[in-house]
Amino acid sequence: MKTDDLIEALVQDVARPQRSTAERVLGATVLGGLVAGLLFAWKLGIRPDIASAVETGRFVFKCALSVMCMACAWWACLQLARPEVRWKNVAAWIAVPPALLAAAVLYEFMAMPPVRWYELAVGRYASTCLSAIPLLSIVPLAALLIALRAGAPRSPATAGAVAGLLAGGLSAALYATHCPDDSPLFVAVWYTLAVGTVVIAGALAGRRILRW
Amino acid sequence: MRAAGRGDAHAYRDLLRKLAPILRGFARHAFLRYGSSAEDVEDIVQETLLAMHLKRHTWIEDRPLLPWVRAIAHNKLMDHLRRSGRRQHLPIDEFGDVLVADDSQSAANGLDADVAIGKLKGRQRDVVVAMSLEGQSARDVAQRLGMTEGAVRVVLHRALRSLSKVLRDDQP
Questions:
Q1: Which of B16, B29, B151, B157 could form a disulfide with B147 if both were Cys (CB 3.0 to 4.6 A apart)?
Q2: What whole-number distance in Å separates Cα of residue B152 and Cα of residue B146?
Q3: Which residues on chain A are in Cβ contact (under 8 Å) with B53?
């Protein structure tokens, strides 16, 4: 086929409107969020002492961090869907949630006596955290990866990982309202492990299905 | 490109015709440098044009167009080198200065595209052949195949996507 012939075929197709990546990713996040939200309401539900919990700084920080994670991953996701954007261009955004978490851990080390550190980090429901967050993430991650197939990421694995961070942040935000373990030490260990699992799953899946 | 976003076919054709020689120069330069066969230059040009078309919404208006085009061409080139068994790291910045037009091969055939069209399913193949090689309009094709014009456009769009997938997956 001659290149001019190909161009003719492309020109004939130009009138079809294309939806932007932002719309697709938004759609996937809302859809995934609804499914995860229903699953959460059905199986877990918000903790009963929510009224007093929202008055504690630790609980608010835990929820805010998850939402922050979502917001940064959302922005990075939209950037990485473009072919000319490299991971370095979004690295500063991705670094925000870990930096906040590190600051909170330092604060907790100063606020709590060393004898309580171990107990706070281990918490009470670590295994629920480790299973609930990845399970809640499955549908959002799948929806996001499908949405991102319309993009053209320079590195499919990186884009998949960031989609995993967005899905994991979403699930963490939901789970945070159920989980009675509020210490930043608990969040640093178990939430990080749980969301990390989703990030790795996203990277592995992205490497396969986000090629273009 | 902005006009193309509004569906202006003439502007889009002009743009693609201007970009093709630039891509050709880009691919030729890279092939010379990495010792790949120069016969494949036209394949890279065509794969890049097709990918640009299918991913045109990832270009943001008001951003410079050429870095975006170059990134897509780079991706297609890396794919190509990977398939032909070379593992090269091609720093994209080196192409900064070599966006030089090269008209020498405009009459050449892209062999991969021919193979890929052969692998499309019946109706998709008919529509692509009619609208590219034979240069027919959607209306003509619709009349000949007894379809509506809208259906022809849908088939064309799906065929272009299949073409891109076949080019990506099925090569040696």
A1: B151
A2: 10
A3: 10, 13-14
- ipTM (interface pTM): 0.81
Assess whether B8 and B63 both reside in one domain: yes
Q: CB distance from B82 to chain A under 8 Å?
A: no
Sign of CA dihedral B147, B150, B155, B160: positive
The minimum CA-CA distance between B63 and chain A, rounded to whole Å, is 11
Nearest CA-CA distance, residue B55 and chain A, Å: 7
For position A149, what pLDDT does the model report? Answer: 92
Number of compact structural domains in chain A: 1
Residue B55 with chain A: CB contacts under 8 Å? 83, 150-152, 212
pLDDT digits (tens, 9 = 90+) for B133-171: 777 777 788 888 888 888 888 888 888 888 888 887 765
What are the tens digits of pLDDT across the range A157-171? 999 999 999 999 999
Which two structure tokens, joined as six digits, stand for A189? Answer: 């260990």
Min distance A11 CA to chain B CA atoms (Å)? 6
A40/A17: higher pLDDT: A40
Locus of tokens 């052969």: B118
Q: Which residues of A touch B57 (CB under 8 A)?
A: 18-21, 150
Specify the CATH number for the domain of residue B96. 1.10.1740
Which of A3, A9, A151 has the CB atom closest to B160's CB atom?
A9
A73-106 residue pLDDT tens: 999 999 999 999 999 999 999 999 999 999 999 9
B70/A84 Cβ within 8 A: yes
Taking chain B, what is the end-to-end CA distance rounded to the nearest angstrom? 33
- Domain boundary pick from B74, B100, B126: B100
Distances in whole angstroms, Cα of residue A203 to Cα of each of A58, A158, A199, A206, A207? 31, 6, 6, 5, 6
Q: Are residues B5 and B27 in the same domain?
A: yes
Instruction: Name the residue range of residue B160's domain.
Output: 109-172
**Contact yes or no for B16/B69 (Cβ under 8 A):** no
